[in-house]
């Protein structure tokens, strides 16, 4: 959110208060940047958290020490979308500078650049679409109902595409572009999505312009909400 903090809870045991809090480093303007997107990865049994922020940077924290590991610089505007490769070695970031940058996390460098349109990749473009990473060419286009909906954030899970935008819903599609479900949320705008798999359960969380985080276990409706105080 806008406080420059990231909080972690233990589900479903402890939902009244967070287990830990991470602080995004202050920018050159001496204020904490907003956190626009989050995801979790793991390399060599070392889990880490990635945050796309309003200082145009990507901040990576160790979830064991809760300390910063890396800061990725290259975008020239807010970073609002993040995704990881299955081996957690490659990071994909979308920004309001109109680009998708593909990062090698071992060298902390950009290895490829996609510019679908010269406007916000994370919202404001003509349509959300899939891209082939080998050819860097466009694949399927996903139309959000109603047509004026703007996609702020999106991620893939198995054969599903999940998206949040400038209305209080999370949309779930099949890979062929067929809309599977439309999930109401507590936020007027959805800015962040995350999926966690544990104990054979898949949990989808959605956050946005609200003090609540929606938690869903079946990609069809909300199970409960977490409230940030």
From TrEMBL:
A biological-process GO annotation: mRNA export from nucleus
Keywords: Repeat, WD repeat
Entry superkingdom: Eukaryota
Repeat positions for WD: 72-113
GO cellular component, one term: THO complex
Coiled-coil regions listed in the entry: none
Keyword Repeat in record: yes
A Pfam family: WD40
Keyword Repeat: yes
Gene3D superfamilies, per the entry: YVTN repeat-like/Quinoprotein amine dehydrogenase
Family: Belongs to the WD repeat THOC6 family.
UniProt-recorded name of the protein: THO complex subunit 6-like protein
Lineage of origin: Eukaryota, Metazoa, Ecdysozoa, Arthropoda, Chelicerata
